[in-house]
Amino acid sequence: MIARINLMDTSITTDNLGDKIICDSIVNELNHILNEVYVTNTSTHDDIGAVGRKSINNAEISILLGTNALSSYFKVGRSDIWKINFKDLIPLSNKVLLCGVGWRNYQDEATVLQKLTYQRMFTNQWIHSVRDDHTKKMLNKCGISNVVNTSCPTLWGLNQDFCKTIPIQKSGRVVFTLTRHKTDPNDLVMIKILIENYDQVLFWPQQIEDYDYLCALAPTELVSEIEIVPPSLSAYDSLLDEKGIDFVGTRLHGGIRAMQKGNRALVVSIDNRATEISRDTKLPTIKRNLIPDQLETIIQSSFETNIRLPHEEINKWKDQFLKIIPKK
Q: pTM (2 decimals)?
């Protein structure tokens, strides 16, 4: 009998191309597994729907693909990342398996209702993968202990040998990102420093409103010095494939994508995601409030990319799929 897996796809109906980077990375990491099973996809950003609930019900497991989908508070049908309705709780019961999922911001301990919801939905027969130790601790407080910190799946391919291929010196070009819902005056300071230190400065809008933020933030004459990369993942990938370009910016997965393509990257930490992942993996980051004093020095210095991966936990999570793949 052929096994069925449902992917709770956070890249469907999203306006954030970072979600596509996450899901693309997970599918690539699980390709050897997904090729052996029947796969369906359901959305997390929108209602599951009758067909989606049927797909989940028929699957052995339903994998929630990354992003900061977990929260301490249950908002029925109103979450913009993982929309859950009461009618979804039955098909999701003991079916959801986490893959590189994170907790949204630094929140208080989950409410009783949220704890009960997660206990009902999250499978107790599989091991869950979360992206940082903070998320693991929050789930433990919910009474969910079958969890390992695998870090974000977007980093899984950045092993020691691959990291050695990433340049340690500054390139002549840089691509930067902004985050439209996390504004700060230091973003303009960052842009000015990049223009002063690179021959060519490019901007990639990971969300389309990021471009509007750039235009509102910087004077017209400054924006005119910046080349705008089309707002698509394929255009960004093509740029990164050229090599010889650094990344500096507030978009975590925009930075990780640059590293996946073999480019030097420095992520500006603006929330718990980059902060927690960097603490666990040594992802190159700088706190945004330190930009005026430290960014230029870091840019001009040489630094190695040396991602520290929890290989044992990653393999432990992956190996459990062997129980549903038919032996040949």
A: 0.94
